[in-house]
Structure formats: structure tokens, C-alpha cells
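Two proteins, back to back. First:
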Amino acid sequence: MPNISTRTSGLGTENAFVVLKEVSDLTAKGRDIINFCIGQPDFNTPSNICDAAIKAMRDGKHGYTPSAGIPELREAIAAYISRTRGIEVEPDWVVVANGAKPFIGYTLLSVTDYGKGHEVLYPNPGFPIYSTQTLAHGAVPVPLHLLESRNFAFDVAEMESLITPNTRLMILCSPHNPTGGVLSRESLEEIAQVAQKHNLWIYSDEVYSRMVHDGKFESIASIPGMLERTIICDGASKTYAMTGWRLGYAVSEKLAPYFSTWMTNTDSCPNHMTQWAMVEALNGPQDDPERMMNIFKQRRDLIVDALNRLDGITCLSPGGAFYAWPNVTELCKMVGAADSEALRKKLLHEADIAVLSDIHFGERAPGKGQHLRFSYATSNENIMRAMDRLEDFIKTRRK
């Protein structure tokens, strides 16, 4: 039998989908699982966006498009980014792909060389694809621990201490998955100073940019001297409830031509009719996304308050996204769970509550405790039913 390559056999995954299969299997057996695993809005895509896609199909928008995307969408994205980030962006700086995730790989391919020891700083805990793609493309992932004591930001001095002559790229995500942390303007300015001092690229994952619950969103690209070294990445999935439509984009004056070439080499071009749907999403009325964001904030307050009332759990209020990241160190001790992953399994199989554990998002920061992730992209009713189940679980399993 021919061999499988090392990079493929060792490729990591996104455990939300692994746990989702567990949930699906249990549901198929008749179990009533309340699911907090998957990070996708529980709303339908707004009707005006759907109508735009249908119109595009009926108008014959079926063929290939330019690899970087149709001009109308690149213009709409440039205007949107300029307006929301307070910077001036040109359409030629924009490249569109089938989802935002491809730009993680395209960025790594564009700024690091395979097997040269080039290093990539990434937030830990963090979106698992940051590290898996770094390894797959022959670079070295260097975790940068996010600290609960800093509202899940990182120590900039510690960050700078991890930079070596081989460091090429730093990945930021704000609002952050999985903690919901939001980087302040002051923190971004400190990071920007370090990035410029050490001549680093910044990959700024901004897919939750419209989901800041307190204050306003800040992009590191808006800090003087940072636009030319920042790759802004955003997409349709979270803001417009379009996860399955698969459309994302990146903005970089320097790297856009290279991203376009990578698109030609991989997907040829973005999905044609989805691009027209996104034109409508950006240029059309914003009532639906604003309504969704208000609901997510209400759910944030509901679940954080409920979690903090339970024995053995403490939970900071996330500043953005739709994730709660409670500390369950004491709860693990109370119910005899060795760690957060053992607790996750107990909750799934004994309480019919599906969550993710901290090890699904990287290595635990030493000495910083055990955590779970709840995606509160579900109804108030489901949140409260799950909290009742969790309370009963704690009472009956307490050692």
C-alpha cells in the first residue's frame, strides 16, 4: 500500500466538528442533547441576501469569476472596511475566497518558507486551525498564552520575549474565539510597536468584528504604520448568518496579488452566486444583523449570570463573539473529573449537555486552570434548560 505523507497523517482538526458527530450519534439514539459546541448563528440568513443569490442564479451568474472575486464585491468590501475600520482601502487590495479560513493557509504560504524554521506566534487558547495550518505548511507554531487575569489578553512583554530572528508572523483574533476576549486600543498600540520594531506581519482575524458587546471594535490596521503589514480577514458567516454559504475575504495591498494566485491554484475562484449575495449583505439594510447582535448580547448576559450562580464555576463576561469560557477548575474537583475534558464527557453522557473543553483549542496555560467553551448561539430556552441540567448534575455528582 502506498504511504500517506507525514504532513497529512499528522494534520490536526477542528474538534467542534468531532464533538458534533458525537452529538449527532447520541441524538440519533433519541437523546435530547442541548448543544453548545458549534460556533454558528442559530438564525436564518436574511431574506434580502437569499433573494440576491436567487436573482444571480436566474440571471445566469453561473460561470467562473476572476480569482480575486467580482469587481462589484471587491468594491463593496473596500468601502465596508474603509468605513468600519477608519482606514482607506482600495478594491485591488481585496481578495475573496470560499470562506475566511483559506486565508490562514494563504498567509502562511505567502510569508513563511517550508522547513526554514520560520516561526508564527498565535493566541492560545485559539482557533485550532492556526497551529495545524502552520505545521502543515512547514513553519513553527509558537503559542502565546491568553490570561484570564488580563480578561484573556496576553502580556505584551511576554509576547516580545518569544520573538526570535525567525519570527515572521503574529496572529491576532479580536473578538476572540474561544474566550470572547476583545483587545483594547491600548493593547493593540503596544502590539503594533512590537510588530514594527521586529518587522512582523500581522494576521488580524476579524470575523467577529460586528460582535463587540461593550464599547466598539478596534482593528490593529487602523494604527499608524500598521496597514501595510496587516492582513485583515473577515467574512459573511458570523455577521450575516451565512456559515454554509462559504465566503470570506482578506485585505492587504502587498499580498493581494499573491492571494489571488493562490486562489487560482486551489479553488480557481469564489462561488459566483454567493458573491452577489454578499454584495447585497454589505450594501443592503443592516437591520437583521443588528437585531442578531443585540440578541447575542442578551444571551451573553443570561448565560454568564447563570454560570456564575453555580457552585464551582466562575465566568468572566466576554466582550464579544458568542462564546463563554468559564473556569471549571473547582467544579472538576467537586464532581471527580480529572480535568476539563473528563468533565466535558461527563456533561455530554450524564447531563445531555454538549460543550467543548479547553484542550480543543490548544495546550492549557500552565497553572491557569480548567475551562470549557459554551457557544451561546442558541435560544434563551435552551440556555436555561441547560443551566437547570448543569445545576442538577452538580448536586447529584458532588463528591
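And the second protein:
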Amino acid sequence: MNFESFAEALSFFYWGAFILALILGVIVNKTNFCTMGAVSDMVNMGDNNRIRAWFLAIAVATLGVTLLEYLSMLDVNSTFPPYRASQLIYGENLIGGLLFGIGMTLASGCGNKTLIRIGGGNLKSIIVFAVIAVISYYMINPFPGSDKTLFSVLFYDWIRPLSINLTTQQDIGAMIAGGASATAKLVSGLVISLALLVFVFKSADFRGSKDNLLAGIVVGAVILGGWYISSNVTIEAEDEAYTLSDYYDNWAMISDDNEGKPASGRTLSSQSFTFINPIGQTYGYIKDGFDSALLTFGLISVFGVILGSFIWSLVSRSFRIEWFVDAKDFTTHLIGAVLMGFGGVLALGCTIGQGITGVSTLALGSIFTLVAIIFGCALTMKIQYYKMLHEDAGFVAALLTSLVDMKLLPASMRKLEDM
């Protein structure tokens, strides 16, 4: 996908993101693909079909990335965000993932689900969106008239030491081979993808679930599509093909003026779908007067998912306005949104951004984040269950009992009885 001008290449880049996001919005709404719902089904009903759909999406994306990277058709080394960075920020991955998992449970869905619900008429999700937007924006960008961010003020000094500087990139293939080994990346990617596919398809019930099959395959393919488009858009200049980010870095030597130059080159790097940081970018875009220089792949994908969900809600006649039931419902969603804003930025992504996009690169930090999100979500659901079952029970009793149920504490520490 080689273009004669930067403007043409950038337009294709953005339109590609928008169309893929539109498909994502339609399919996720149609099939009720929901990562929080998947964990809920597993924890509360013992139904693993939707968790299998999530793992199918991971398998499809990972298998595609593995094969296309081996064929030199993708760049998943220099990405935005830097999934395979040699600095393993395990503290941020685990704590951020835990916060995000708790937050998405309280707020009735992850970042992607928030967009889906907005498209379906849910006004509660607009509030959740706004809170995530402000927090995630100022986690990365300085406060007005300051050089401080929420991350630098609240987290940097104590959480950044919880990291390890590796001698290789943090993807499994590189760590096994002790460096950049195409064969190790290929083998590790194939083994993990096939293991996931075996787990997914060993269930006859899942194999008969058309919506879950459709969701897993299409969501995984959309993630792969994002990687492919962002890795292969180039501009022909001075008899050389430049990627968008390389063109940006060499702008002064290639371009005659700054017309059409984006505000940042990092957001032009190879990438796929993630939603917490882009929700924050949406706030910055609105705050700064809809400056076209602030448009990004992620920002455009936010609008694409909302529109796709809106279209399906009209087609299926499922569009309906929904508001908070009471003050408690408002407060719970507000707390959840705050936790998702902080957690999603700390962990470098959400259930889609790290749980599928990041994991498709086999980055260790992404895997840590995925595990932490699932754990935080499952634990919160268990606590909510026991608080509902025993209205007078304290939080500690519900927490200890939940951890016993999850086999993380001995049975002797159980404080509450199950039904």
C-alpha cells in the first residue's frame, strides 16, 4: 500500500481504522461479545462459551500476527504502545490490570463495551466515557500550566521501580531464543495459538454457538487487520518508501512545509485496536477545538465502534435509552470509570488493547495484564455475590470467602456460606 503523498497515505490509514472499527462495533453488538460478560458467565454460571470466544479472538489474532511477522509482512516490534519493549513494567501491568478488572465490573463493561453501549443508547456509558477520558488524558498529558501528569504525581516514584530491564524484547520468542530469532517467534506463536484453538474447540457446545464463533473469528481478524494496515502504509518520496512514522521523523528533509503534519509521530507507528488511551485522546481532541492534527488511529476507531454499534442497534431494533437506577448505581459506575481510567493507562491497555492486541504479539507484559484483568473482574464478582447473599456481611468477610472460592486461601478461612 504505497502512496505518492503523505496526505493520501494518512487518509488511507485513518479510513482503514474507521472501517475496521465500524465492523468491530457491529459484530460486538450483534454477538454480545463482552469480556466482562465472559468472566461473569464463567464465575457465576460455569458457562465458558463467551470466554472461549475471547480466547478464539486471541488465537486468530496471534496466529495471524505470528505467520505474517515471519513472512516480514508485519512490524510488531516498534509499536504504539510499545508492547515488546525491553523494559518489563510488571508492576504497572499487574496493578493496572487488577484496577481495570475491578473497574470494568463496577462500570458494567470495559472500554470497548462502553463504546458499544453508547451506540446502543446507554446514557450511563457516556458518563463512564467522560470520566475515563479525563483521567486517561491527564495520566499522560500534563495539567494546564504544569509539567506534572497524574502518573508522575500519583504513581511514578513507587511503581516504576517495579520493573525489569531485560536483555531482549519481552515477547516470548525473543526471550526463549535470547534475542531476535524469527524461528523462535514462529514456533512459540504457533504453539500458543494452537493450544488456544484446542481449548476453544474441544467444547461441542461452543462449536454449535454461531454468535460466539462469529465474534471470536471477526474480532481476531479485525485486530489482525489493524496490525496489517498500520504496518504496510508507505509513502514514495525521493525514490524511497517511507512508513508514516519514518516520514514524520524526516519531515523537515522531505516536505516543503508543515501543512497536514500530525501532532505526534508515535501515533503513526504500527498498532492495532485499544480503547482507553484513545478515549483520552478524544477528550484532548475536543478540548483543543477539533484540531485535525490531533487525529489518530485510536481516536478514529472510537467513533467507528460507536457508529457500528449504533447501526446494529437500529437494524436489530435494540436501541434504547438507559439511565442510572439510583444514586448507588451512579456511584458504582463512577468508581468503576475512575479505576478503568487509571488502570487502563498503567497497564498500557484494556481487555482489547492488551488482552487481544497486546497478547497477539506474545508480549509478557500483555499476558500479565490479561491475567490481572480476569482475576480483578472475577474477584469483584465473587465479592458482589457474597455481599448480595449476606447483606450484613462486611467487605473483609466477603473478600476472604471469595479468595477461598478461588482456591487462593485455605477453606478454614471461609467466613460466609454459599447457597
